[in-house]
Amino acid sequence: MAYIFANGTGTAEDPYLVETADDLNGVRDYLDAHFKQVADIDLSGYANWEPINAFAGTYDGGGKKIENLTIVDQRVVPKSPTPKWGAGLFGFLTTSTVKLLNINLNNVSITSEISNPQPASFCYYVGALVGGIELSSGTATITNCVAKNVTINVDGMNYLYGFGAVGGLLGYISHCNVTNCGAFEVQISHTFIASAQMGTGGFIGFMKASCILTQV
Fold it and tell me: Does residue 216 surpass a pLDDT of 80?
């Protein structure tokens, strides 16, 4: 059963109002809707946050805080099909309509324990706000978003047939406009076996095609 928001209808004119941690978790039930955060949110009650995947709407954080985001990602890479996974508040996004605005993350901990015994091909992206945004056309928008006190540990990865990117705010992006964003007090450990180029950065792990960064 889909989550029921107390306020709003999810339109641009009347967005769902996000006031609690449960409200934030309910975003995943309305992936193309509009949201406005109206209170600081503490995610410490979610011991292992499940990233919001395939989000295609607008999330306006309203300058409020999202604190104590913790992810412990434990998965086994399948032989097929080739997965593309993202770890962050939002996971892996592929739609150009996505807009992430005025989001302030504080105290983020992401630990990835991905097992690839085959080894098989996979792509894995990690960032406090978004693991990965991969578009073939159009442009995603990320504006006024900040992450502070970020610790990411992605160790012992076997990317022999895949690709990985780890960043303090954004892991992997393509076709994105990123304006007035940043990541501060970031600690990243990213160790791997790889045959292709990897990306690791305090702000963005890897930028591909058609990205514009302004006032970062």
Answer: no
**169 vs 188: CA distance, rounded Å:** 11
Q: What is the pTM for the complete model shown?
A: 0.95
Chain centroid to CA 66: 13
Residues 6+ apart with CB under 8 A from 186: 147, 150, 151, 152, 168, 202, 203
Of 150, 81, 87, nearest to 114 (Cα)?
A: 87
Residue 61 in contact with residue 39, Cβ under 8 Å? no
Amino acid at 124: Y
Write out pLDDT tens, residues 22-76: 999 999 999 999 999 999 999 999 999 999 999 999 999 999 999 999 999 988 9
For residue 67 the two structure tokens come to 């604190």
Q: Could you tell me what percentage of the chain is helix, strand and coil, using 3-state DSSP and rounding each to the nearest 5? A: 5, 50, 45
- Helices marked H in 86-137: none
d(CA 194, CA 163): 8
As given in the structure block, the two tokens for residue 28 are 């995943």
CA distance 85 to 110: 14
